[in-house]
Specification:
By secondary structure, the protein is an alpha/beta fold. It is 47% helix and 12% strand. It is globular.
Length: 1263
């Protein structure tokens, strides 16, 4: 259906498929994804364009996946229809569209067969089709066209979280080297101007994430090659001298001009003109002169200080800041909507603003530009790009890409794709549109289709730009509109058409009238119920000093909103005439804190709720509660921690019980309980221990606190997984959780997003931004009466010059225009957000209106009162005026008034399900507590020594600090702790000063897991891995070279002994397996495996290493296990190219530190000389590594028995190698030495086959 010129109503089967650039405008709920999928179906069949020749782009991965799913479903449905000879008319419009398409096109059986073939091929190829995000498209293009774009443009994609971490590292380096090099008072002055580590990180991140704008600096004053300290004093000095000169010449004239300005404002009827006055009581010029004289006197008398005041003293002066600064005048003009005037004393006022703001502005610019420059170099060096870098790389205006190379890339893209579809086009930024426009829209051979809704352009903070959409709209050859709504009922749709009739006036967008597709449905609400309710919420005005009543503040109105929402919900779900369940209702909010307040109020009313897409569960109250619990298990004797647990939501002791617990013995009982749970944690897990602590009463009380119980359970699962993966002890788990709680990850990983749905039947609470694309039966919008928050600098977008503008001197000059532009854009986006909010409902919409101070730019007022209404009191915004504007003659709207204060009416109780009560089955046997998931670390953690303190195996396993030495001396004979140095001369290990402990050990493990053994560790890819892992574990990057050298020794050393000259870097990928994980069943049907059983196994092969004295130490362990034994072998390899011909070995990396310690770590000795066979054997015994090695060999034995044909353990099972990384010598140090002897740092042992087979039998026993 044609409307005007190039505008049409969309017809799915008549839409032209010939080349051209077109736009489909889809209002909320009009089925744009269906339309897109149907057009893909037509393109595949009617134009015979394969799915591989289509590029389909959407805004997020989630929407891309949804589109792919919808296309697949559409193809399957079409295939089903094509198989049928006759078609019954369907009442479903979707089927009608498909049947009409078949009727129009299937004129012969040959067409039917041909199209079936094309669709089947498309279905096969769809998983590999380019249905992706704009970043995904750019990433693929960069990799495909790496040569034309430059080899440096074939890097790895860095995640948003890692990119932020890299920026933090760079800013930290800048702060340390540049900011801390400034004099203290200069630094304090900059900090007073808002320059901090956190603000600098956020500013650099904001600039780096936006590919559309460049950041420019004042190159006349800033030299990035010079340190900040060498420039800052000069800036302050220059601006100070200019200020002093102008002040002395014009200060009296300025004060007189300000008085005259105050008089003119009073004549206009403006009451509040503070800080100015028509008759000032203070002589501010004299006050500032006295300050200047005092400074001059002090500076002249103290020759040790500079001849100008510090920047901190300048920033501290209140007269410069709040009276003489030009923004003070601008503020009054803005508040009272006055015409912008020029400065009253321009030369002096400008110099005041400069001396106060410009030194900080220049320092900010130096910091930002330096950080961005280093960031660019760093990413290029290690081969990483961020999402925005991908966009910039393909930008036609990218000056780093030659015009010729750009033409080649565009030519290849045009050859690869014939069809380009862009979903959610309103979220496109200028650079993304430049790429698509230059590449495809300017081609006469391509079908280019954009689908979007400008009214839902709400992602300005992510770079989405409405103007880009409007520019593209003017360039297209055809515009079609979707005018059927599939979301809302006819009654609600009619009411929405009335409500939206004025359009979005600030954005300049009309809202088309839509028809509801729904004919028959099950209504939750009575048929005569108004589909839209408008609550006129009146909060009493506050009288001021002159008895004139003022409007309440926004916060005063907000106080009662949660109760108002709660009461509305209770009325809905308790009404006997409705079938409304909590899950049918959604509350839309502007901010996360509003969501939290509404949720808390619903908890008070005992109404279940869930925060949809809200935050990180490890940043929630639940993670703090779990932290308290784990801290108590890690240190059960710490009474302060135990008392904190007692008063936490877990136990909920009141103040009186806390006071008395030390005297009546309850505190001691709780300490004993925590001791007991601490011992059980490793075998039974956190959830079991937590359940035992809570017992039924506390668990019931906790369940009443809304989502807290669900969040605690989710946090417990996350920490439990970390315990299993990293082999954490109780202390390690508490420390890990603390670190994760302090680590803010953006975006939040899926596993850490709260899924605390206490019940599926819960009120949904979600921000408007997150609600886009969602729908709910009943929607409540309680905050649309609020104006958008005022934009904050000091970073402003200057779209005309496609650049960022940095200014602290806001409110006057050019920055004033930036602020006005930002305010206008915020107001425009707020009404688009309101449109999104108002169109989420399927059956009923409840809107709350209220009048508050400084909220006149809210998006709701024009919709319910009209564009022309003026007024500032409650009497100007009545129910009658709402009804008159909406022409509420057919009762489409229910309009009523509620006055504050509002409190919760009653608590809600869900309807009781009437079922007969009966006892459940009674368990016939006790729970087998020996069954569980175990590991080597679990087993060795069971050792005890005389004073019954706990041995932490995780700390012992990967490092050997002083405290560990003392501990092991108590556990093991003194002879095992002695260091037996070699007689040969070796130098210190490059890793001698590398940090000790489990974190450092885990870091080295991860590096060896990820690097390519066959290439040098100094190559860019390996160096990138090393740097990334050092950063991840918080280890100083100064160790990069030492790690490269130390690990190169591991990979390049001849293994010696039975392996002769073999080296790890000679192993092909076919010969090795990194990180072989295993799960072995323990005693499937028999009794638990005990320590004495292991002792008996190790008595076999007594002549092998660890066959004589070690078995006795196994008796010290307290093992009783059945279930699953889990582990991960660092490296498995075969010593021959042919896997069936060689022997297979397990290798394990150990970072144990053996040597002589000194207070100065740099002087400590640790190297091959200390890693003799005897020293390494002692370490093996102390840490029970022989047990670990044998468990690994059993796992390898089973793996080979499963995977290797004709496997024979005596032929194929090689043995184990323990690499003590810090003890391996260099190539030069090995020259001339015989390799048939053991090499320092390497402990190699052939597999004691008989012992391994006996251990395998023990683990697998079934009797």
């Amino acid at each position: 259906m044609e409307m005007k010129n190039k505008e049409f109503i969309f017809e799915p089967n008549q839409y032209p498929l010939d080349p051209g650039t077109r736009l489909i405008e889809a209002s909320a709920g009009t089925g744009k994804t269906f339309s897109l999928a149907h057009l893909v179906l037509r393109l595949i069949t009617e134009r015979e364009i394969s799915i591989s020749e289509m590029l389909i782009i959407s805004f997020t991965k989630a929407t891309s996946s949804e589109i792919q799913s919808k296309i697949s479903e559409r193809i399957v449905l079409a295939l089903q229809e094509l198989e049928q000879e006759t078609h019954e008319q369907s009442k479903d419009l979707v089927d009608q569209v498909l049947q009409e398409w078949i009727k129009l096109n299937i004129k012969s059986n040959s067409i039917r067969v041909r199209w079936t073939t094309l669709l089947l091929k498309a279905l096969e190829e769809i998983d590999h089709a380019d249905i992706t995000t704009i970043h995904g498209f750019c990433s693929k293009t960069i990799r495909r066209e790496a040569i034309e774009l430059g080899s440096h443009m074939n890097p790895d994609l860095i995640t948003e979280a890692d990119n932020k971490q890299l920026i933090k590292e760079i800013v930290h380096e800048y702060w340390k080297e540049q900011m801390l090099g400034l004099p203290e008072l200069q630094l304090k002055g900059l900090q007073a101007a808002g320059l901090s580590f956190e603000s600098l990180v956020n500013t650099v991140l904001k600039i780096d994430n936006d590919p559309c704008l460049k950041f420019n600096i004042d190159q006349d004053k800033i030299n990035n090659s010079q340190p900040l300290s060498e420039q800052f004093d000069n800036w302050v000095n220059d601006f100070w001298e200019s200020f002093i000169l102008n002040w002395r010449n014009e200060c009296l004239e300025l004060e007189e001009a300000l008085i005259q300005k105050a008089i003119s404002w009073k004549e206009m009827g403006i009451s509040n003109i503070k800080p100015f006055s028509t008759k000032p009581r203070r002589d501010r010029v004299n006050e500032l002169n006295e300050w200047l004289q005092g400074l001059e006197s002090k500076l002249n008398s103290d020759k040790s200080i500079a001849t100008i005041p510090s920047y901190y003293l300048i920033r501290k002066n209140d007269l410069l800041k709040n009276y003489f600064h030009p923004r003070s005048i601008s503020h009054i003009e803005d508040v009272n909507d006055l015409e912008i005037t020029s400065l009253v004393q321009p030369k002096l006022q400008k110099s005041i603003a400069e001396v106060y703001d410009s030194p900080a502005e220049l320092a900010w610019q130096h910091a930002i530009s330096s950080s961005l420059s280093i960031l660019k170099q760093r990413k290029a060096k290690i081969g990483l790009v961020s999402y925005s870098d991908q966009i910039k790389a393909l930008d036609p205006e990218n000056t780093e890409l030659s015009r010729e190379a750009s033409k080649i890339v565009i030519k290849r893209l045009r050859e690869r794709y014939k069809v380009v579809m862009v979903d959610e086009f309103q979220d496109t930024d200028p650079v993304q549109w430049r790429i698509l426009n230059e590449t495809f829209s300017r081609s006469s051979r391509h079908f280019v289709l954009m689908i979007g809704d400008p009214k839902q352009s709400i992602y300005r903070f992510r770079g989405g730009d409405l103007q880009t959409y409007l520019t593209a709209k003017n360039q297209v050859t055809r515009i079609d509109s979707l005018r059927t709504n599939y979301r809302s009922t006819p009654n609600l749709m009619n009411s929405l058409n009335i409500l939206m009739k004025p359009g979005l006036k600030h954005s300049g967008l009309g809202v088309p009238q839509l028809a509801s597709f729904m004919k028959k449905e099950t209504y939750l609400l009575p048929k005569n119920d108004a589909p839209i309710e408008i609550i006129n919420f009146k909060v009493q005005s506050i009288p001021n000093k002159t008895s004139k009543r003022e409007l309440p503040t926004m916060s005063q109105v907000e106080e009662s909103i949660p109760s108002l929402v709660t009461n509305s919900i209770i009325q809905l779900i308790q009404d006997s005439d409705t079938n409304v369940k909590p899950d049918d209702i959604c509350v839309l909010v502007n901010r996360h804190d509003q969501a939290e307040k509404v949720r808390r109020n619903l908890i008070k009313a005992k109404i279940p709720s869930r925060l949809v897409n809200q935050g990180d569960v490890l940043q929630s109250q639940a993670s703090y509660v779990l932290q308290i619990f784990l801290d108590c298990l890690a240190k059960p004797t710490d009474s302060s921690k135990i008392k904190l647990l007692a008063c936490s939501p877990l136990l909920q002791w009141n103040i009186d019980k806390i006071k008395d617990c030390s005297q009546n013995g309850e505190l001691d009982l709780l300490i004993i309980k925590c001791f007991d749970l601490s011992e059980k944690l490793q075998n039974r897990g956190i959830a079991s221990c937590l359940s035992e602590l809570l017992e039924s009463k506390n668990l019931a009380n906790l369940s009443k606190q809304g989502q807290l119980l669900g969040d605690i359970q989710q946090c417990t699962e996350i920490v439990q997984e970390a315990i299993h993966i990293h082999g954490l002890s109780t202390k390690g788990a508490a420390k890990w959780l603390r670190q994760q709680r302090q680590l803010i990850i953006d975006p939040t990983p899926e596993t850490r997003r709260p899924n605390s749905d206490i019940t599926e039947d819960a009120i949904n609470i979600i921000t408007i931004h997150s609600s886009k694309g969602l729908q709910y039966k009943i929607v409540i919008c309680p905050y649309l009466w609020q104006s958008p928050p005022a934009p904050k600098g000091p970073l402003w977008k200057f779209k005309e010059s496609k650049s960022w503008y940095f200014s602290l001197s806001t409110g006057w000059g050019i920055t004033r225009q930036f602020i006005k532009s930002s305010v206008r854009e915020a107001i425009e986006e707020s009404e688009r957000l309101a449109y999104v909010a108002l169109t989420r409902a399927q059956q009923k919409l409840i809107v709350i209106w209220s009048l508050a101070d400084k909220q006149h730019n809210n998006p709701l007022k024009p919709l319910i009162f009209g564009n022309k209404i003026r007024g500032e009191t409650q009497d100007d915004f009545t129910n009658e005026k709402i009804a008159a504007w909406l022409n509420n003659q057919q009762n489409n709207f229910k309009i009523y008034e509620i006055e504050a204060p509002v409190t919760n009416k009653i608590s809600w109780a869900p309807p009781k399900i009437k079922l007969p009560l009966k006892l459940g089955p009674i368990p016939k046997r006790l729970l087998d507590k020996s069954w569980g998931r175990y590991s080597y670390s679990n087993w060795i953690s069971t050792i005890r020594h005389q004073n019954e303190s706990h041995w932490n195996p995780t700390l012992l396993e990967e490092g050997k600090d002083t405290e560990q030495l003392n501990l092991t001396q108590d556990i093991f004979p003194e002879r095992l702790n002695e260091i037996v140095p070699l007689l040969d001369q070796y130098s210190n290990s490059p890793l001698a000063s590398f940090p000790r402990g489990p974190i450092a050990g885990d870091c080295l493990h991860r590096i060896l897991e990820k690097v390519n053994f066959e290439t040098s560790l100094t190559e860019l890819s390996s160096e990138s891995i090393i740097k990334s892992e050092l950063s991840r574990f918080g280890i100083d990057l100064k160790f990069i070279n030492k790690v490269q050298e130390g690990l190169d020794r591991v990979l390049s050393i001849p293994l010696g002994g039975v392996l002769g000259n073999m080296k790890l870097n000679q192993l092909s990928r076919k010969q090795r397996i990194n990180e072989l994980q295993f799960d072995l069943s323990l005693a499937r049907k028999g009794d638990p495996i005990k320590s004495i059983d292991l002792y008996k196994v190790f008595l076999h092969n007594p002549d092998n290493r660890f066959g004589r004295n070690y078995p006795e130490l196994l008796k010290e362990l307290d093992i009783s296990s059945k279930g699953i034994l889990s582990g991960s072998i660092d490296l498995v390899f075969t010593d021959k190219e042919d896997p069936s011909d060689g022997r297979w070995w397990v290798a394990d990396w150990k970072s144990n530190w053996i040597g002589k310690s000194f207070k100065n770590e740099e002087q400590s000795e640790c190297g091959p000389i200390y890693y003799s066979d005897k020293s390494m054997e002692n370490q093996m015994i102390i840490h029970h590594y022989p047990l670990q090695a044998h468990l690994y060999l059993v796992a390898l034995h089973r793996y080979l028995n499963w995977r290797l044909q004709d496997y024979d353990p005596s032929k194929h099972l090689g043995g184990y190698i323990y690499f003590f990384i810090r003890g391996i010598p260099s190539k030069q140090e090995l020259k001339g030495k015989r390799l048939n002897k053991n090499i320092p740092g390497l402990l190699i042992e052939r597999a004691p086959v008989e012992r391994i087979l006996e251990l395998d039998k023990l683990i697998n026993r079934s009797i």
